[in-house]
Amino acid sequence: MIHLHITSWILGLVLFFAAYYLHTSGNAKASKIVHMILRVFYILIIVSGVTVVLGIYGMYAEYIIKGVSGLWVIASMEMILVRSRKGKPVRSFWIQLIIALVLVLLLGWRLPLGFLKMGV
Predict the structure, then answer these.
(1) What long-range pairs does 86-94 form, CB within 8 A, spacing at least 24?
(2) 19 CB-near residues (< 8 Å, 6+ apart)
(3) Cα 60 from Cα 64, distance rounded (Å)
(4) Which of 76, 100, 104, 112 is the most exposed place for a label (fewest CB within 10 A)?
């Protein structure tokens, strides 16, 4: 399940940047399609993340912080796409996305199910 989770968030990030690029280049229809596909990946990310956390024997606060930070990443990505489509400022959400993504990645590599422990 951990591989599904990692694959889905990597594809989610790729789809996010693709949707943002398509929107900024003026291709609104393609941007909307990619954005809807990205929303499906949000569901995959959340469901696989919850499944991974529930499969852990001990519930540590760091896993809860990582989960909340992951939801923060998803919320920031969604707000960037929606607000940029409406023409509203998104700078604060870009800052939030960077902070939350760094936090999630650092916790992901540090915790026992992280990359360094898996041999990836």
Answers:
(1) none
(2) 31, 34, 35, 38, 81
(3) 7
(4) 112
Phi, psi of 89 (to 5 degrees): -65, 140
Q: Whole-prediction pTM value?
A: 0.86
The separation between CA 82 and the C-alpha centre of its own chain, rounded to angstroms, equals 15
**Tens of pLDDT, residues 11-27:** 999 999 999 999 999 88
For 55-73, b/e burial (b = at least 16 CB within 10 A) is eeeeeeeebeebbebbbbb
Which residues have CB under 8 Å from 101's CB, separation 6+?
A: 73
What amino acid occupies position 68?
A: V
CA distance 21 to 31: 8
Burial class (CB in 10 A: 0-12, 13-18, 19+), 5: buried
